[in-house]
Amino acid sequence: MSSSFTRGVKGWLAGCATTTVVISVGVSALLIASYPNLSSVLVCFWVLGCSPLLFFVTCLLTAMPASIVGWLSEKFQIRAVGFFACAGAATGALIITLLVPRPEFWTSGLGYVIAAVGFVAGVAYWLVVRDATPQPPRSETSQPAS
Q1: By the 8 A CB rule, do 68 and 99 touch?
Q2: Taking the domains of the chain in order of start, what are their residue ranges?
Q3: Which residues, at least 6 apart from 134, have a Cβ–Cβ distance to it below 8 Å?
Q4: pLDDT digits over 29-51, tens only?
Q5: Torsion angle of C-alpha atoms 32, 115, 54, 17, degrees rounded to 10
Q6: What's the CA gap between 68 and 61, in Å, rounded?
Q7: 100-110 burial by CB neighbour count: b if 16+ within 10 A, else e?
Q8: Measured between alpha carbons, how far is 41 from 39 in angstroms, rounded to an integer?
Q9: CA-to-CA distance for 58 and 13, rounded, in angstroms?
């Protein structure tokens, strides 16, 4: 396996883990803030207990879009954090639109939240794969003459 492929898979898993953590912790925090009683705390434990399932589903749903983004970044040598962040947001928006094809989901603002989570996941991907960028050697001619 090539080094860029391995880093790409690690970046994809980091993005999926980021999505899982942000959604699980976000839902739990909203529940506790909205309903500060024992039943909401128990529901939060249930939500956090379902995190492995959320991680697995996220990996399944994002495998193809992430591989396309990885291929595009390799083919065109794109290394910008903005590219990966926007690709993550677009992936989140696409997947949630396919899963919940109702305009009410977007007008309520939840679609934008999922897109924002994808944006953060794209940044997490970039943080892992950014070291895969081969740096050109510095030439001695670019040094000022003394």
Answers
A1: no
A2: 3-130
A3: none
A4: 888 888 888 888 888 889 899 99
A5: -100
A6: 13
A7: eeeeebbeeee
A8: 5
A9: 9
